[in-house]
Amino acid sequence: MADSGNFQAPAEISRLRTLALGIGGIALIVWAVGLYFNPEQALRSWLLGFIFWGGIAIGSIGVLMLQYLTGGAWGVVIRRTVEAGSRTLPVVVLLFLPLAIGLTSLYEWTHLPPTDYTVQHRGWFMTQESWILRSAIYFVIFGVIVYLLNKWSAQQDRTDNYEDAEKFLGRATAFSGPAMVFYALIVTFAVVDWVMMLDPHWFSTIWGLLFVAGWALSCFCFSVTILAFLSDKAPMNRVLGKRHFHDLGKLMLALTMVWAYFNFSQFLIIWSGNIPEETGWYLTRMAGAWGYIGVILVLFHFAFPFLILLQQDFKRKAKRLATLAVFILILRLVDMFYLIAPNPRIDTHGFEQGAFILSWMDFVAPVAVGGIWLWYFFGQLMSRPLVPVMDPFLEKAIEHGQGH
Amino acid sequence: MEKNLYGVMAEFDTATELVDAARKTRDAGYTKTDAFSPFPLHEIDEALGIKRSILPIMVFFGGIAGFITGIGLQVFVHYIDYPLNVGGRPYLSFPSMVPPAFELTILFAGFTAVFGMLFLNGLPRPYHPAFNVPRFALATREKFFLIIEGTDPKFEYDGVKSFMVSLGPQEVFDVDE
């Protein structure tokens, strides 16, 4: 029988929760003022915040399925954190609503004339009702995955023997395989709708994978930060060991490399093809200040974390790994800014199309979205024990972390 | 007999005994030691005071050598030796050089890992003196062995022998060269 001790979240989480709501609330009010004066910029900044924080939530769904499929100690210790992340889906839908309501103020394609060749060829696919319908479908499918996996996990907690507990684990594992396929497809469709269509005339077929990998990296960095925070407090100080962080650090390294690999693949193919429909996207992003952001991403989203994470000792120290995780998260936000901000605007307010625009709302909106999202996340984290107490592999997983 | 001595070996019944004995051996100041067990023992590295391998560092520099080779090869071929206009792009086109340089990085790092591991382990080595002890065959089944090698700076036959006996092993053997 598992150690059925008290695995409730420490009181600090509850304090952080209030803090997040306070900061988020203030930022939301400030953002609302911006929305009144410049709705397009406000919504674009909101999209930035939504893709970043919603990405952690959606990435959590993917990592939750991934750890069921691969097994391993890291999956057992990270499970409740990513489960809490996946259960934030209702608030993600809520945070999505401003985008759906302000669709015509945000997306240039809603103003394209019917003679435009993209409108002609894409037909019903690129109409407002189908865009909203598709987003609803994405959330419903995500919702089914989140509901089932969390239901089985909660039922596992309530079992009193390992046979039943193993049955629920087996069910979640069997479900995760096929669900993972749908997940990758849904993420691809979703980010094409939400982000790529900001520039209706440009397309990239690796786009979905950029986000599947990028959001998984966001989720890992976020979870490592949360786990490192919990690691020196009861009850998680009895669970987490340096080998858990070592394993999570390895996964961060792998995903940092995958992120760079996918991004470079996209760049190399467009550079090699050298056709006007595609190169415009990079020409904008390599000019002026956008170009510097691109260089910053190569150096600090890839090269720097890559070299740091190569070192074994670094990955074993929870606090240091968490510092790097926060650093990568900030660069994730810069990456999202690089993908979202340079796209064509409906009303450029006198700027040239593609000119560098960094609005104060690009700072306020992610804080507003993040505050609200974190408030809900911490609530979910507190609602269940911090480890799957009845998991048949829990003791083995704890033992793994204490080794060297 | 002492001239051809490779070392002194002790046989233990359990992994715990071996790890305890290894710890005492390290504390006694012996450095040229080795332990044998039927399955991997994570504690034994620390117990014997075995230092971290320098292999990761070798692999890192192997990778860098591969990257430089990859870039160098392409600069030589496409820019110095036989400049060829491909689709109107510059002769020195960095994006197109990345995939081959990346592959060579991995290839060289992989080779360094494999051959460096063999070199650091002293492999290939078709014969090891430990096999002169007939009971050593049990190291692959159920027994645990500890050796203090004759090349140890503190090695002195009688002292080592009585030290080994003091560890409480099943049996102590002389290992002939």
Set out the fold topology.
The complex is a heterodimer of chains A (about 400) and B (about 180).
Chain A lengths: L10 H27 L1 H32 L2 H14 L2 H13 L1 H4 L10 H6 L5 H31 L3 H33 L12 H24 L11 H32 L2 H11 L1 H22 L2 H5 L1 H23 L20 H22 L11 H9 L2
Helix pairs in contact in A: 1-2, 1-15, 2-3, 2-4, 2-7, 2-8, 2-9, 2-14, 2-15, 3-9, 3-15, 3-16, 4-7, 7-8, 8-9, 9-10, 9-14, 10-12, 12-14
Chain B lengths: L4 E8 L2 H13 L5 E4 L6 H6 L6 H27 L12 H27 L23 E6 L7 H10 L4 E6 L1
Report the biggest beta sheet of chain B as strand number plus sense, adding barrel if it closes: 4 strands, antiparallel
What's the total count of β strands of chain A? Answer: 0
Helix content of chain A: over 70%
Q: Rough shape of chain B? A: rod-shaped
Q: Which strand order spans the largest sheet of chain B, edge to edge or round the barrel?
A: 2-3-1-4
> In terms of per-residue confidence, which ranges of chain B show pLDDT below 50 for 5 or more consecutive residues?
none
> Tally the helices of chain B: what do you get?
5
Number of domains of chain B: 2
Which residues of chain A sit in consecutive blocks of at least 5 with pLDDT less than 50?
Answer: none
CATH architecture of the largest domain in chain B: 2-Layer Sandwich
The overall average pLDDT of chain A, rounded, is: 89
CATH topology of the largest domain in chain B: Alpha-Beta Plaits
| Largest interface: chains, residues each | A-B, 10 and 9 residues
Radius of gyration of chain B: 25 Å
* β-strand number of chain B: 4
End-to-end distance of chain B: 10 Å
Structure, explained:
The complex is a heterodimer of chains A (404) and B (177). With 404 residues, chain A is an all-alpha fold. Chain A has one domain (11-109, 136-402). Chain A contains 16 helices and no strands. Chain A is globular and about 65 Å long. The longest helix of chain B is centred in the middle third of the chain and has 27 residues, at 55-81. Chain B is an alpha+beta fold and 177 residues long. Chain B is rod-shaped, with a radius of gyration of 25 Å. Chain B has two domains: 2-38 and 142-176, 2-Layer Sandwich (Alpha-Beta Plaits), CATH 3.30.70; 55-120, no CATH class.
